[in-house]
Amino acid sequence: MSGTTSLGTYLRDLRARRGLSLDEVARLTRVASRYIEALEADTFGALPAPVFTRGYIRAYCQALHEPVEEALALYHSQSVRTPSVPTQPVKVAAPPPSAETEARSRSTVLVSFILLVVLGLALFGVTLALQSGKDTTEKRTVDTTSSPSLSPSSTPAIAEAPSPPVSEPVAAPPPVITPRVVSPPPVATVHTAPPAVASVHATPPTSVPSASPATPPSAPAAPPAQPATPDLSGVVAAVTSPYHLVARVSEPTWIRVRTEDGRLSEETIPAGQVREWVSNGPFVLTIGNAGGVSFELNGRVLPALGPSGAVISRLVLPPQQ
Known about the structure:
alpha+beta; four-stranded antiparallel β-sheet; 8 strands
């Protein structure tokens, strides 16, 4: 191409040789058709920043399978010769507002002001109504509270009018005074009664200590009789070492297990839990609830050891001969 060829002429010739339209090039390059037209018309002022313009040129040449260097060189030479003065946007002064728009704006402001005034008056009226209702309720409560105090003052005035002709009401007050005088003696007797009550309180301490030490020892004395466990020798006679003990708990039970090597296991096992121990020698068990646990020794189920709540202080499994 000669040096006088512009970028727009160069691109337009490439497109014409390919037989493509502007819309087809825009679809291939994915560049807006108005930018393609601006490139071919050399109107760089209608294009975005040079960075984007160079990208459009590359996309144009790649879509037509042409080298990009010559087109970029043409763009560079033209952009250097023609400063980017047209690219500066021309500020167009806005037309002065018409009389109609000014009237509309004034009417809008006036309507909004009227609405604000109406709203303020409505709020003021609601506040006055609420305040007056509160005042009326307070007056009613004051009237109701003051009315009973007025009624007794009126009744004595009515009673004083008939009092001169009738002499009997004058005699009635003395009986009312006499009960008040008689009432203090029973009150005095009530005050004298507490010494008798104090004596009653003094006697229980002597009887309680005598009875309390006798009963508590008798209650814990019952557990030692619990070791009446069933004979287990027939069930575990053929069991040999090592021993595998399994405990299945149906009620919360406290169990202490000591193995042959001296290890000690002690816990309160909740219902539904299973515990296992292994030892080369017999187990020594202490059970807090014999009816809440069942045992298996080397796979053999042992019979029930006692009722629920029974305590077994020492149980050797398997029993020693």
